[in-house]
Write a structure and sequence with these properties.
Helix content: 40-55%
Number of strands: 24
Structural class: alpha+beta
Shape: elongated
Distance between the termini: 74 Å
Radius of gyration: 33 Å
Amino acid sequence: MKTLKTLFKQDKERFIVPKSVQDVIPIKTIWEDGIFLVGNMIYAKTYRFEDINYSIASKEDKEAMFLDYSELLNSFDSGATYKISIIVKKLDKEEFKKDIMIPLKGDGLDIFRKEYNQLLLDEATGANGFVQVKYITVTAYNKKDIEEARSFFSRVGTDMSAHLNRLGSKAIVLDAEDKLRVLHDFMRPGEESGYKWNIKDAAYKGHSFKDYICPDTFEFHKDHFVMGEKYGRVLFLRDYANFIKDNLVSKLCGFNRNMILSIDIIPIPMDEAVREVEKIVLGIETNVANWQRKQNSNNNFSAVIPYGMELQRKEGKEFLDDLTTRDQRMMFSVLTIVLTADTKKQLNSDTEALFAIGRQNLCQFATLMHQQMDGLNTALPYGVRKIDALRTLTTESVAVFMPFRVQEVSDRGGIYYGINAISRNMIICNKSNLQNPNAFRLGVPGSGKSMGAKAEIEYIAITTNDDILVCDPEGEYGTLVESLGGQRVIVAAGSPHHINAMDMVEGYGDNKDPIIDKSEFVLSLFEQLDRNRSLSVIEKGIVDHCLRSIYENYKNGGPLPTLSVLQDRLHNHKDKEAEGLAKSLELFTKGSLNVFAHPTNVDTQNRMVVYDILNLGSQLKTMGLLVITDAMINRVSMNWKMGKRTHIYIDELHVVFSNEYSSNFFSSAWRQFRKRNAYPTGITQNVEYLLDSITARTMLSNSEFIVMNNQAASDRIELAKLLKISEEQLSYVDNADAGCGLMRIGNAIVPFENRLNQNTASYRLMTTKPGEG
């Protein structure tokens, strides 16, 4: 074919025996933006793309993803070649320690830090400890200079990013430093943490970039190579099965060995592909006609066309039909794999295991003989192809080599949330990377939602200087917070601790006029006093007028108002409705439930404060939660001005959505938290009550971090509709063990396991099970 002839001609270079390890690397020139010159007028650029949840998607979702991936392949420009690379590598223990391990501080909390460090180390080096990173390398031909290449890559990169976004993935461009790091980590295993390269420093010193990434030695033998102290072998897919399952690549990469799997793709222009197939079909028909003519001449008029010819005719017509009516493209492809091991014996064993995986899927892998160097350069994401063992495929046939498996979350500077139930890799999430840090934890009693929240609180307390505020309706968090150096405020009838419901710091509220938000809050309190009726328009106006009056006095130098002051002002108001409002406050100002009617007398400036409202009583619990939320708004506003982050945890969240005013107030508070560098987390076991409120549903659907432990059947169905979770994904919250379930982190939906070690000091502080602790 013309395209292949042209491509082979452009790829052909005079063979020069490498005289040094640097000569093995086929890169001629690099630019800071990640474009590499890899041949005569041949440029390459690499993009990293994120994984998606293909393996746990429903059948319908898988079909949609498969079609979207096929569209991505169809969008490949015929003036370029493409290489999809999956690099499987062992987690670098030293790099991990530097990024994740918690430094000791000698402040009395090091016992918890040591326990967490041991947990992280055990998970990182446990049964898996391997990570997969995926790349697409685009190679452009016949570009006169770097500017023309940049223009091409800009167009292709934009188009490719759009298709990956539809898949739920995204493309990240690798600059020169990032791409050289990929090559360095492969060629110098064990030295990943020592990679330091800067293009300006290297240019100033006159050093070649190859010196920073190449191994100490390269030895190429007939069927393997030696790279430094590692043994390696390049394999290729020689024979394809008639039918290949879409999990072949996942199985190969799930072998959990240091390896690189690369799929080189050469798109053919549609017009040329159709002409070529038409020629082939015409040739087959000619052969059939000649065979029939020969049989007729021998008076054998009933002869049946041989099976081989009939099969060729059928396949040729199907191929032509694919190109002309089924939106398929012709592509040439070759699949190569590089395996590395510490010893030759281990390499041979791993090779046989990989051959076995291929045979199980009716595919035949083979070792490249006397082509190990060419095979290595083909498999690595340089952007070159030195192996011509090409196979003619359609778009669907290439798409069967599906590179996607399951989404991973591993953010630098994040918090450990357990392990991925599929890949067994750690889930480390940094909420600051999300569009918003709003979070929910949902689950039936005993599912582990509170334990997960406590583990998160402990991790934040021992790793950051952020403030932590907890509203605790069940008295679960006090022991933990006090052990971490925080303060427990007991809010109950007869308690010596008082919280002034009328506190209002500078900057309070979500509006320019803070009285509007305070009025919303006070009206929600009145709604709690008598839930059988709503305030009239006149009564709302009276409350608003009295609030403005008492806060105007406060702004002019008067004392901070309390509910008692508000009651006195209502008594003095001329309208008769005001007297009824004043009397309704009697229980909470002069009665036994006056816990919120006095000036605040506890230190609420401790870094960690838990508001324990266990003994507040059912009549006051919702009111208590609202007052505490209002106190949290004040604290968040002060921290925001000081540039300090605040983490908010509110348990039994569903009770605030029992009426309109408390619902509106809490929704406003939730927005204020987000705007003022606070990370709010709502916790509830009554998901059904939460979903009954339109406001709560909106808050839930707009939150970027949601942890779903075991759910009741009705709740599972509603959550699936709201959060667009498939049945396969939902199975992870169906009768899930404690500490297990499903997380939605941004666009990623990840099944997780977070079983805490019961033989630790942390667990004994967190557990509420009888007989434990």
